[in-house]
Amino acid sequence: MPPLDELLQGGLPVGQLVELYGPAGSGKTQLLMTIAVRVLADEGRVFWFDTERTLHPDRFKSLCERWSPHASFETMLSRMAIKECDDLLDLARGVEALQALPICGGHCLIVIDSVAAAARCSEDVIHSRLEAGGSNARGSEATVLAERQGLLNRVAVALRGAAWLQRAAVIVSNHVTADFGSDQNDAFKPALGLTWAHAVNAQLMITRTESPLERQIVLTKSSEQYVPSHSVRISSVS
């Protein structure tokens, strides 16, 4: 996508992790689908990990027909692997499995939508296990956070390994949480904390605009360069 290519100075970087975050309804999944379709239209391969069951076939098919009207939808879909995951352990194992696959060659994209949903599910699983074992609330919370962080680290390591072996670009969506350290009342930041934020190479924030047909994307972090004011607008129906 030209606007995104401009923002990242050449498109999604191969071998690196890019995080896309924004409020609910801001268009994260729509943007991820559009990026995936562009890769498929260029005869690339896509590995999509769906933790929220938001990859709707009809929406995806319409995007394929828009970007590659002369290509068969079935042919494009044959170059895409979709795995539904529930928690971080399931997600980590799925990404680790990519390292055992033959090298794709050509363009390759790994998508996770979203890592925050998998983290939330893992927290519920860990809480349930600890409650069944009779852990106290304070100790339980510390254990949950520690185990969640360990699983997030495993996912990040697996993504880096798969991205390097497959020569793939990686983009992961994330939820947001209130930023109480900001002077703005409605400020937010990516969920999952600083350790996860340090694992990603670039962060893109997507928000609604005054136009229902547009979204604004801001580059808020980049390992290549830091450009806090650099932003682009894209069509919400791309």
Automatic annotation (TrEMBL):
Signal peptide as annotated in the record: none
Matching Pfam families: Rad51
GO cellular component terms, semicolon-separated: microtubule organizing center; Rad51B-Rad51C-Rad51D-XRCC2 complex; replication fork
Localization: Nucleus
Sequence ranges assigned to domain RecA family profile in this UniProt record: 1-176
GO biological process: one example: reciprocal meiotic recombination
Main localization (coarse): nucleus
Keyword set includes Heme: no
Keyword terms: Nucleus
MF (Gene Ontology): ATP binding; ATP-dependent DNA damage sensor activity; four-way junction DNA binding; single-stranded DNA binding
Coiled-coil portions: none
InterPro entries membership: AAA+_ATPase (IPR003593), HRR_RAD51_Paralog (IPR051988), P-loop_NTPase (IPR027417), Rad51_C (IPR013632), RecA_ATP-bd (IPR020588)
Domain of life: Eukaryota
Official protein name in the record: DNA repair protein rad51d
